[in-house]
Design goal:
203 residues; Cytochrome Bc1 Complex, Chain D, domain 2; 2 domains; 10 helices; disordered N terminus
């Protein structure tokens, strides 16, 4: 029993600053704070305490812009983005909780560059595609993201590829049509190279 309590205790210590912020945002009693605490713990359970999950199929959320996170949680809450896990987590979130959790995520550290050996030809192909498709015009030259545009640098390669495919299929909601246009006409090999480059981006 003691060993099972230790990881949760560490999470609560790590979440203390954001919970203090949330208490001010929510202006509510202990029951609301506890609800928010549970939802933040649910974020960490899948995405990791630093926003960098061990499971490669789960996206990295560390370093994402606050406004982007707020939009995505809103879309999940309203059912405009489909993910059984995320729809369940977000369905009862208040607007104040969306704000507090977005603050929490935005304060997590950005993922470090991957340390695997880079395939130079693939990396160059991905870089050329990113340049031709003007990815940096929205996501910043270092792909760190801004406002409602997500951070791409260091994101999971497989997740990026799936997101590109979803934009092509018209099943990924966004705040504008720019992403669907950016990936229009690209084949799977192109999308894979673009994802490879962004996941390993180095300034």
């Amino acid at each position: 029993m003691a060993s099972s309590l230790q990881p949760r205790a560490r999470r609560l210590i790590a979440f203390a600053p954001i919970l203090s912020l949330a208490a001010g945002v929510l202006s509510a009693g202990n029951a609301s704070a506890q609800t928010l605490q549970d939802k933040i713990a649910a974020c960490a359970a899948c995405h990791g305490e630093t926003g960098q999950p061990a499971n490669p199929d789960i996206p990295t959320i560390g370093g994402q812009p606050k406004l982007f996170v707020m939009y995505q949680l809103f879309y999940y809450r309203e059912g405009r983005r489909k993910s059984p896990e995320m729809n369940t987590v977000a369905k009862d979130m208040s607007d104040a909780e969306l704000t507090a959790i977005s603050d929490y995520v935005a304060r997590l550290p950005a993922p470090p560059p991957l340390t695997d050996t880079i395939e130079a030809a693939r990396y160059r192909r991905g870089a050329d595609l990113a340049r031709i498709r003007l990815c940096a015009s929205c996501h910043n030259p270092d792909y760190s993201g801004r406002e409602q545009m997500p951070r791409l640098a260091g994101q999971r390669e497989g997740y990026l590829f799936r997101a590109f495919k979803d934009y092509q299929a018209g099943v990924r909601v966004g705040t504008q049509a720019a992403m669907a246009e950016a990936v229009r006409g690209l084949g799977d090999a192109d999308l894979a190279d673009l994802a490879y480059y962004l996941a390993r981006f180095r300034p």
